[in-house]
Amino acid sequence: MIEIMAFSKDKGFQEALSMKQLSEEEWDWYWVDFEAPTEGEVELLESHFNFHPLAVEDCLHGLQRPKLDYYDDHTFFVIHSVNRKNLEREEVDIFLGKCAIVTYHKEKNEALEQAKGIVKRTKDFSTVDEYYVFHQILDKVVDNYFPIIYNIEDHINEIEDNTKKLSMENLLEALFDRRSELLTLRQTVHPMRDLLYRILNTHHLDGVFERREYFADIHDHLIKVADMIASNREMTQDIRDSYLSLNSHQTNRTMQILTVISVIFMPLTFIVGVYGMNFVNMPELETQYGYFVVWGIMLAVAVGMFVWFRSKGWFE
What we know:
The chain is an alpha+beta fold. It is built from ten helices and seven strands.
């Protein structure tokens, strides 16, 4: 599907145009959005717009790293947005030329829809051009990172407080899931931050220089997101270490109690073993109260050892 928006001084802002109208009439600037295009629509990138074959090839092949490439009459950008539902990266390719911006993406993109809405609701088009659209796309892509990181942060706090009373295994599993999500975000945000740095420091894009403070604000947001990701990863590591230490401590306490019980029963087992031998000449076996005496000795030994271990703090 191809969506076209254009602006001219005579006709003002126009949308829902066709490629034929775009070719036959004069426009001050226009935005052409390729959303999940067909093979025939993809061919227009070369046949109609004359974009460089390497740039078109990058559009067609998988996830490219966020980048910036200069060509004779246009600049090619690859940026990454993140799907809020499954946290998967979504590539958006942008061709920025003189008085034209062309976007290409293989699925419906939330950030682009938001940018379209802003352009359509604009009442004063005197300051709106292809660089304005480019800024809006980048701004919305980066702004959509924040709800994702806030949501992950809330989940981490729930894990730390264990409000749902989950077991240790379930807590660690949820914690590692959050760390995996943070890693995915980091792999998206850091290249985007580097890309914005290149855009801010380029001398080939006059429109960026004219709106430098706006693009610098996007770069600042990316730095903030990167810091939040790093902070949350450190938090997950601290929580993980705390849970592992607690689990190790509980294991040691269990082993300690079992050890105490075993030690208490060692002398009792020895006494029982001695009087369980089948020798004929064992004087104590014929004693009238020998059975009760042995029981008394065994209880005294058990109680004495229990009191002694308790005094050493082994049962605290």
